[in-house]
C-alpha cells in the first residue's frame, strides 16, 4: 500500500477540534516543524498536545499556542529559552498543564502503544505530581501508578521512509517518535526522502510501516533552532 500524500495540508486535514496530538522531537531534534505549521494553517481548536516541551520562540508548538489552538499541554519541560507563548497563556489561565517526568512520559507513551493500561514507577513519589495517584509498595520501596498515554494523531519526522511506511530516523531525531507512532490511532510522517519498497534495509527499520498511516516528502526540512536564531515568526496562512 502506497501511503504517500501529495502535500502537508492533505496530511493534517483529518485533525479536528478536540483531538489529542503527539508531536515528536526533543527540542528541535526530530521536530516535524513543517507538519506543525501545516496544522496551524488548518486551524483546529481545543487540542491536547503531547510533546517533550511546551514550545519555543514564535514557531512550531509555540505558534500553535499563540494561535489559541491548544487547550492542554502534556510535557516534561514547559520552560525553554523563550517560553513566552506558553507562560503567558498559562499565567492567564487559558491553557492547562500536565507535568510529567521525562522518563515517565516516554514510558506512558510506550505503554499506550503496547496496550498496557498502567504501570508503577518510583519517579514523583512524595511530590505534588503523585497527588491523587495510587501508590503501592514493592520490596520495601514505594511506587506511583501511572496511566498509559494514547493519542488520536502523531506527527513524526523521519529521515527515510518507504512508500509502505517503514521509517528510519537521523541520530537523536529518533527520540520519542517510534513510541508515538505506536501510541497514536493515526500516524502522519514527514520524511526527508521517500523510497520504493525495499529501499530501506529491513535490519535498519526503526518504525515498521504497520504503525504509519500517511507520509509526505519534505526534501529540505527546516530546523527549529535555526528558525529561532533567525527571529522567525509563524502565523496562519
Automatic annotation (TrEMBL):
Keyword Transferase: yes
Family the UniProt entry places it in: Belongs to the 3-oxoacid CoA-transferase subunit A family.
NCBIfam families noted in UniProt: pcaI_scoA_fam
Species, as recorded: Pseudooceanicola antarcticus
GO molecular function, a single term: CoA-transferase activity
Residues annotated as transmembrane: none
Record's protein name: 3-oxoadipate CoA-transferase
Stored PROSITE patterns: COA_TRANSF_1
InterPro entries attached to this UniProt entry: 3-oxoacid_CoA-transf_A, CoA_trans_fam_I, CoA_transf_BS, NagB/RpiA_transferase-like
Keyword tags: Transferase
Signal sequence bounds: none
Amino acid at each position: 500500500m502506497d501511503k504517500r500524500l501529495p502535500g502537508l495540508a492533505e496530511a493534517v486535514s483529518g485533525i479536528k477540534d478536540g483531538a489529542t496530538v503527539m508531536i515528536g522531537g526533543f527540542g528541535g531534534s526530530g521536530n516535524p516543524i513543517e507538519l506543525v505549521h501545516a496544522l496551524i494553517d488548518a486551524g483546529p481548536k481545543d487540542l491536547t498536545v503531547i510533546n517533550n516541551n511546551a514550545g519555543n520562540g514564535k514557531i512550531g508548538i509555540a505558534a500553535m499556542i499563540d494561535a489559541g489552538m491548544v487547550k492542554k499541554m502534556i510535557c516534561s519541560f514547559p520552560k525553554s529559552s523563550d517560553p513566552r507563548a506558553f507562560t503567558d497563556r498559562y499565567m492567564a489561565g487559558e491553557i492547562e498543564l500536565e507535568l510529567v517526568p521525562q522518563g515517565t512520559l516516554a514510558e506512558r507513551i510506550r505503554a499506550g502503544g503496547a496496550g498496557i493500561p498502567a504501570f508503577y514507577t518510583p519517579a514523583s513519589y512524595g511530590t505534588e505530581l503523585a497527588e491523587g495517584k495510587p501508590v503501592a509498595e514493592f520490596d520495601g520501596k514505594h511506587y506511583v501508578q501511572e496511566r498509559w498515554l494514547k493519542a488520536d494523531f502523531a506527527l513524526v519526522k523521519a529521515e527515510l521512509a518507504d512508500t509502505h511506511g517503514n521509517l528510519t530516523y537521523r541520530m537523536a531525531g529518533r527520540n520519542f517518535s517510534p513510541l508515538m507512532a505506536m501510541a497514536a490511532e493515526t500516524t502522519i510522517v514527514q520524511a526527508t526522502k521517500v523510497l520504493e519498497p525495499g529501499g530501506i534495509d529491513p535490519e535498519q527499520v526503526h518504525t515498521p510501516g504497520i504503525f504509519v498511516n500517511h507520509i509526505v516528502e519534505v526534501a529540505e526540512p527546516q530546523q527549529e533552532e535555526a528558525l529561532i536564531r533567525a527571529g522567525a515568526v509563524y502565523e496562519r496562512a
